[in-house]
Structure formats: C-alpha cells, structure tokens
Specification:
Helices cover 41% and strands 16% of the residues. By secondary structure, it is of the alpha/beta class. It has a single domain, classed as Rossmann fold (3-Layer(aba) Sandwich). It has an 8-stranded mixed sheet with strand order 3-2-1-4-5-6-7-8, sandwiched between helices. It is globular. It binds NADP nicotinamide-adenine-dinucleotide phosphate.
Length: 247
C-alpha cells in the first residue's frame, strides 16, 4: 500500500455496511487506516472488507446492533486491549424512524430511534473517549443532519434525535478543548442512500450526490491537521458553519 495520510491509524466507523459510512470506511482504509467497521448487516460489512483488501487495506468487522449498549462497552474494551488507543471515531450510524405527526408516532419506534441515534452515540463516546485521548491526534466526526436545525412538519422524531446528538458532541468538544482531541459535527446534506430514499420516495436519486462524493468531503476531518473543534461542517457548502452564540 502506498503512503496514506492515515497510515498506522485506527479508525472506528459505525453504519459501515452501506451508504455514507460504507464509503467513508473505504476511503479511510485507502488512506492507510485500519478500519473497525460496525453495523448489523454482515453482507454489507463483508463487501466492504473485500473492497478494502483489494485496495491493499485492512479492516476488522464488528457485526453489532447499536441498541446493544453492553456490546458497545465491550467494543471499547476490545479496542483498548488490541491497540490501546483509537485515532478516529466516525459516529455515523442512524435511522430515520418515521415521518409522522408527533401524536401518531408509536412509542416503541420513538424509543428505538432515540436508542440508535442518540443513546448509542453517547454510549460509544463514553466507551472510546479515553482511547481517543490516548491518540496523539484523536479525531471524532459525529454525523448529524440539517434536520437538527429545522422543525419541519412530520420530521420531529428524527430532528429531535439529531439535535440531541449535536448537543452531546458539542459539549464533549467543549470538555476536551484543551486536549489534542478534535470533535466536529457533520451535516452531509441530501445524499443518494437508502435512508434518503425512505424519506423522499418520490425523489429522483440521480439528482443527489453519491455517498462516495459526500464521504470524500468528510474525510479531511479525520486528518491530524484539523484544528477546529465543536464546529458544524456542512458538506454541501464544503466549510464549517458557525453555531449561533448563546443569547
Ligand atoms: P443508510 O444508507 O440507511 O445507512 C445507515 C447505516 O446505519 C447502515 O450502515 C446501518 O447498518 C446503520 N445502522 C442503522 N441502524 C443500526 C443499528 N441498530 N445498529 C447498527 N448499525 C445501524 O443511511 P445514510 O444516508 O448513509 O446515513 C448515514 C448518516 O447520515 C446517518 O446518521 C443519517 O442520519 C445521516 N444523514 C443522511 C442524509 C442523507 O440524505 N442520506 C442526510 C443527512 C444526514 P445496518 O442496517 O447494517 O445495521
């Protein structure tokens, strides 16, 4: 493998079985990182592993349902045991839940969407925070959505989970400001994936950027030269946006 910008680094990517996470995992591996790829769908993870190997990279597959909080704890412990540190975290896995009037959402689905989008992200952060601090240039990328900043009809559940996730990521960034760890939130924008097709069934997918294109814009946030922390990176605009200052 030729020299990459992430040679020797360990990168954990959730939601690596398809979509944005799949492509980001590929690209991190192509830059030389050993990718720890998490998702439930073994077929998707194996396809990822094949592509990574063919390109001369390496990965470790972790079939895991992120609602298994004990599993997330064990994953952190396993990374600690094997490498003693983590260099890159990409908290990307997510689900839409349902687009529905607030009063019509089923309690079970509400709880599951919160578990996958919010609780598992917090649990993962809790599990790997010491490992990222042990890296000389720990980088965390938390994948959010424009929905975190809007209050569109029927999007309440998904929006609430993304707003909560951003708040957690930003607080974590404030807590770690004086360390080498850099933590940023990403809004990928509309992307040609299964989740987008579920949200917008009438839309022509060809009108949307491919996940590989979106991943290529996110990847630089994993590099050692990142100085920003606690910022929101907008993929479409390809730049950091400012959060509004508290009043
Ligand atoms: P996607 O193609 O549906 O992929 C979602 C990924 O999350 C899959 O790999 C899925 O793996 C994983 N996942 C879902 N539930 C899981 C669970 N319980 N346990 C483990 N893994 C789970 O979606 P995507 O569009 O690439 O979305 C990636 C991220 O971007 C999400 O956070 C999403 O909210 C955000 N986003 C997407 C768009 C867009 O237009 N696509 C826009 C804004 C934000 P398994 O099913 O194999 O477990």
């Amino acid at each position: 493998m030729t020299a990459g910008r992430l040679n020797g680094k360990i990168a954990l990517v959730t939601g690596a079985s398809r979509g944005i996470g799949f492509q980001l995992a590929r690209q991190l591996a192509a830059e030389g990182a050993h990718v720890v790829a998490v998702a439930r769908t073994v077929g998707g993870l194996e396809e990822l592993d094949d592509l990574i190997r063919k390109a001369g990279g390496t990965s470790t597959l972790v079939p895991l349902d992120l609602t298994d909080m004990g599993g997330i704890d064990r994953l952190g412990a396993a990374i600690h045991q094997r490498w003693g540190r983590l260099d890159v975290l990409v908290a990307n896995a997510g689900m839409l839940g349902v687009l529905s009037p607030i009063g019509h959402i089923e309690a079970k689905l509400f709880e599951k969407t919160l578990a996958v989008n919010v609780t598992s992200t917090w649990r993962l952060i809790r599990s790997v925070d010491p490992l990222l601090r042990a890296s000389d240039a720990g980088r965390a990328i938390v994948v959010s959505s424009g929905a975190a900043h809007s209050a569109r009809a029927f999007w309440g559940l998904y929006s609430a989970t993304k707003a909560a996730t951003e708040a957690i990521a930003r607080s974590w960034a404030s807590e770690t400001e004086n360390t080498a760890l850099r933590i940023n939130v990403v809004n990928p924008g509309a992307t040609r994936t299964a989740m987008r097709a579920l949200a917008m069934p009438g839309e022509n997918p060809d009108s949307l950027p491919k996940p590989a294109e979106v991943a290529a814009r996110i990847l630089p946030l994993a590099l050692a030269d990142v100085t920003e922390t606690g910022r929101l990176f907008d993929v479409r605009e390809n730049r950091f946006l400012s959060y509004r200052a508290p009043e």
